[in-house]
Amino acid sequence: MTRQTTLARLMRAMIKYDGGDVPRIQHFVKVHDFARTIGVAEGLTDEELFVLEAAAILHDVGIHAAEAKYGNCTGRYQEELGPAEARKVLAETGGFDEAQTERICWLIAHHHTYTGVVSKDHRILLEADFLVNSFEDQVSKEGIIAFRENVFRSESAISMLNDMWGLSSLQENHNEQNN
Fold this sequence. Notes:
Layout lengths: L2 H15 L4 H20 L4 H13 L4 H8 L4 H19 L4 H11 L11 H17 L4 H10 L4 H11 L4 H9 L1
Helix pairs in contact: 1-3, 1-5, 2-3, 2-7, 3-6, 3-7, 4-5, 5-6
Protein name: HD domain-containing protein
Organism: Parabacteroides absconsus
């Protein structure tokens, strides 16, 4: 089975898992596409990209478990309960070794953690999720700029965010504030 076939099977499994919840399905499909685009642009290896794409598809897998257990799906609860749910979906899908599964689960357990971000795959997942959330959650222009300045580091993700929202670059914004 090729990696693309494995990811397609995982996408289908997650659509089934979230069956009837069209907004959540649309969300993870968009996050996956942004994560893949950024990952390719930022030069991830094939292995890194494969794991990132799987994590992007699964990143919100803990939402249903969090709602059932806690009555809400805050980021903290998603991070807590997501890895166990992800393991079930990954095992059902097949095609992931133990190291890949562990990294995917780690990313899911940190996809709302914005401090101490040192790895490309973690940062790209945060950026891709925000590219989608900035629209879906109708984040203010000020909120978008603040998130860009505090979290975004990937050149391609910054460029996409600026283009999406018609924002000036970080340097132009800095120059405007100092004039």
